[in-house]
Design goal:
With 88 residues, the protein is of the alpha+beta class. It has three helices and four strands; from the N terminus they run E-H-E-E-H-H-E. The protein is globular, with a radius of gyration of 13 Å. The mean pLDDT is 96.
Length: 88
């Protein structure tokens, strides 16, 4: 996700709140937001869930609606989603 430079502090605050709440979900294995090295206006969130039901529960959660849909999505300039399939 790419954000305007001026939104960096607000984005960081939203990410902290979203990560903290997401990590409490029963099906969340890992949830780590990152700034891209050399490009602090780009954020990558590495998310890992126990199964597809956990992904759907995450997307239906109150905190996702508040912090992602109502926060990050309103501020981002663009985004790209990649779904990874573990080798092991």
């Amino acid at each position: 996700m790419r954000f305007a430079h001026d939104d960096r502090d607000r984005v960081a605050e939203i990410l902290r709140n979203l990560a903290l709440a997401s990590r409490q979900e029963p099906g969340c294995v890992n949830y780590v937001p990152h700034h891209v090295d050399g490009d602090p206006d780009t954020v990558v969130i590495y998310e890992q869930y126990a199964d597809q039901a956990a992904v759907e529960a995450h997307r239906a959660s109150r905190h996702f609606e508040q912090y992602a849909v109502g926060g990050l999505y309103q501020l981002m300039k663009d985004r790209e989603i990649e779904v990874l399939d573990a080798v092991v």
